[in-house]
Design a protein that fits this description.
Elements: H1 21-34, H2 47-54, H3 58-70, E1 74-77, E2 81-84, H4 90-101, H5 115-119, H6 146-158, H7 162-166, H8 174-187, E3 197-200, H9 203-214, E4 220-225, H10 229-237, E5 242-248, E6 251-252, E7 262-267, H11 281-293, E8 297-301, E9 326-331, E10 343-346, H12 352-362, H13 368-379, H14 382-408, E11 413-415, E12 423-428, H15 434-442, E13 449-450, E14 463-467, H16 473-514, H17 526-529
Helix pairs in contact: 1-3, 2-3, 6-13, 8-13, 9-10, 14-16, 15-16
């Protein structure tokens, strides 16, 4: 664990009148240690630096440090400086507790928040934890070319100009915008120039920008159901009621009669999240016509478009837009690594200035050095090579998952056909609930997500989301074995419950039939009609 180094000036209380400098400094530092503001292991400033900061003689500072060391508050070594001791004596711990109990508690008061403040909810990020089957929504980070990335980063930083250190225009680093526009035109069939591309931190920021700029009070927004919860969270936080719309094998089902007053439609055409369907050409054209006729916008999340394992690559919906109603967004989080908070938003030419103005007020611009590194990564062809390699790896892992599920989970889980993406969906056997299946799997160190987590309405069929991209074949095989072991008792218990109900029902009918005609009495024919 690296040592904490206190290189910044220490904030100490004023010296009371009549108190010697050495005694005051000793007491002030002691209170900092006991109050927890100087943490165990934290390095103190050098005596010369502290003397210069406090306008004291260096001997005065050395005297205070010597007293603290003699009492066990700090330790010092030649060449290592002076730091707070890692383990304080028991009496110091007790003193620390008594000190912290004297901290005044501010009085509670009613907090008045904006509508956004009342509506916004916490979206949890990625938490470092051991990798296991079937981790979803995560790429194979262990296969990312970190050494190559480090070389590009080192080269960029070694020749960094004052312009690179200063920052960029709100829309983003011009060479990166040009590289993204080239990539989208070539690989995604988008129709755009670099001036239409804004560099954002990811799809989530793009959603927030679009919601702020196009949603007016009273406007509604459409989301897929089941679908990405982050989109609905942004729209609701911005005060827009959400219209959940069903999804089938062709993607989102257009329902114009339910979309009255809708100003914005969120859709994942390339690979619907989480079910994996690709939006058919007919529906793409239907959505574009609807948006044009109703003065509405389409937010196209180009989710998982890079990883296709079957069929020809599908062009972006934005490439079919002849009326400037589609906004295309994507992220490099799954393509490269999640910690790289860089993505893009392609907007119609008429909106470029408005979106750039909004970014200038909200975030100014994305980190410029990261933008420059990513631009080099794209221009030098490394992204294309990385994508080709990962498609092969993910296709192999998908094949292993499909084989293992067919062999071990037959009758328990039916995998949907998958053409793209980092995860897939499996339908559970009748009677098995997704939430209880996820709990049973977690007890056996297997990660699955119940489809209920993505749905705003009750699902007609229960299912699980299973990831495969981040998990090697050996772990996929283990996960399939453990998942089968977890699900089998759930199916058995459901079958036994259904059988018991059937037996009781048959016994009741037989009993009624064996009674004399007058034995029904006041019950009449209720049993039969029921």
């Amino acid at each position: 664990m690296p040592k904490r180094v206190a290189t910044l000036p220490l904030l100490l209380p004023l010296r009371p009148a009549g108190v010697g400098a050495a005694r005051w400094l000793y007491g002030a530092l002691r209170e900092q240690i006991l109050g927890g503001r100087l943490r165990p292991g934290q390095r103190l400033p050098a005596t010369r630096d502290l003397a210069r900061q406090l306008d004291l003689a260096r001997g005065t500072v050395v005297s205070a440090f010597d007293q603290l060391q003699a009492e066990g508050y700090v330790v010092g070594a030649v060449g290592a400086g002076t730091r707070v001791t890692d383990v304080l004596p028991e009496e110091l711990l007790q003193a620390q507790r008594s000190t912290t109990t004297r901290t005044p508690t501010p009085p509670t008061r009613a907090v008045r928040l904006s509508a956004f403040g009342r509506q916004v909810g916490l979206m949890r990020g990625n938490e470092p934890r051991p990798l296991r089957a079937f981790r979803a929504n995560e790429p194979a980070l262990d296969l990312f070319p970190t050494q190559l990335w480090a070389q590009i980063a080192g080269r960029r930083l070694r020749r960094a100009s004052t312009r690179l250190l200063l920052g960029s225009e709100p829309a983003g680093y011009a060479p990166l915008r040009e590289a993204i526009a080239d990539y989208l035109r070539t690989s995604r069939g988008a129709v755009c120039g670099s001036e239409q591309v804004l560099v954002v931190s990811g799809v989530q920021e793009a959603l927030d920008l679009v919601a702020r700029l196009v949603l007016r009070p009273g406007d509604r927004a459409v989301v897929e159901d089941p679908g990405y919860a982050g989109a609905a969270a942004v729209f609701e936080a911005n005060g827009a009621p959400v219209v959940a719309t069903a999804v089938d094998a062709e993607g989102i089902v257009p329902t114009p009669r339910r979309w009255r007053g809708v100003r914005l439609l969120y859709v994942t055409p390339a690979h619907q999240y989480p079910l994996g369907a690709s939006l058919s050409l007919g529906r793409r054209l239907e959505l574009l016509d609807w948006a044009r006729a109703n003065d509405a916008w389409i937010f196209e999340d180009d989710y998982d478009a890079e990883y296709r394992y079957a069929g020809r690559p599908l062009a972006a919906l934005q490439g079919l837009d002849c009326h400037g109603v589609a906004l295309l967004a994507g992220s490099f989080s799954k393509v490269l690594f999640p910690a790289l908070r860089l993505g893009y938003l392609v907007v119609p030419p008429a909106l470029v200035d408005r979106f750039a103005a909004a970014k200038s007020v909200l975030t100014r611009h994305a980190p410029l050095t990261d933008q420059a590194i990513l631009a080099d990564f794209l221009v030098e062809g490394h992204l294309g090579r990385h994508l080709r390699r990962m498609r092969e790896v993910y296709a192999e892992r998908l094949s292993v998952l499909t084989e293992e599920c067919g062999r071990r989970l037959a009758g328990l889980l039916e995998l949907l056909p998958i053409e793209a993406g980092l995860q897939t969906v499996g339908w559970l056997a009748p009677g098995i609930r997704g939430a209880e299946a996820a709990r049973a799997a977690a007890a056996r160190d297997v990660e699955v997500i119940a489809l209920d987590a993505f749905s705003r309405r009750p699902l007609a069929r229960q299912g699980l989301q299973l990831g495969f991209a981040a998990v090697d074949p050996a772990e996929i095989r283990r996960g399939a074995r453990e998942l089968a072991t977890a699900l089998e008792p759930l199916r058995t218990s459901r079958c036994a419950t259904a059988e018991n109900r059937s037996v009781r029902a048959e016994a009741g009918v037989a009993g009624r039939r064996s009674r004399p005609a007058g034995a029904q009495g006041r019950r009449g024919n209720v049993g039969e009609s029921g």
